[in-house]
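FAQ: What does a multi-protein file look like?

Like this. Sequence, then tokens, then the next protein.
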Amino acid sequence: MRSIDSALMEARDRLANLGLFGAAAIGWILVTGAALRNHLVRDERSKSTMRENNRNGYGAFVLYSLLAITAFWFPTAIAIVTTVSWIFWLTLGIRMKRA
């Protein structure tokens, strides 16, 4: 069966997807950074949680940057890794306790 999308469009779609994940990570870094700088957390436990979330944002940005570069050579593997990482972030968010 012939694919409707061209190889160029598929690469563009993969990069757009990873770019959106990277943008979400940058947003998370900015939000948590603002909360920490402006003392918007209630107590030390909340501050600790916010710092951890900030580190997670930096980790996500690095991860998705590396995945975007690697996607040119290994598109299927990167699609799988991106899906697994999304499940990881979802699970992490569900398991977080309210600070």
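And here is the next protein:
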Amino acid sequence: MFALATFIRRRFKMKERKPSDLLPKIEGSKTSKDWIALDLGNIALHVFTAGAREQMDLETLWTVGPLFDDLVNTKDTEIVQLLNLFSSSNPPPNRSVSKSKK
């Protein structure tokens, strides 16, 4: 399992990337025989054995997650206030297009 994660990390290092792109982090134990994860920045890659995948059932967790997470539907008033303040002090640019006469 760890060998597969190391191979994926090595391939990621070989691709063209920005200097600011971080190298993937391997999460989990080197001795894990069932599950390991890689943090690829905007992608979380999970590598499972068939048994671990069935047990974890991440597809169902991601599908019904918001229904069972009380905090996901609450408003963070501090953030909303900051966004409103920013929006009011930084109006969007005028995007009207003027037509030139020939």
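Q: Is there any per-entry metadata?
A: Some entries carry free-text notes. For the entry above: The beta strands are 25-27, 35-39, 44-48.
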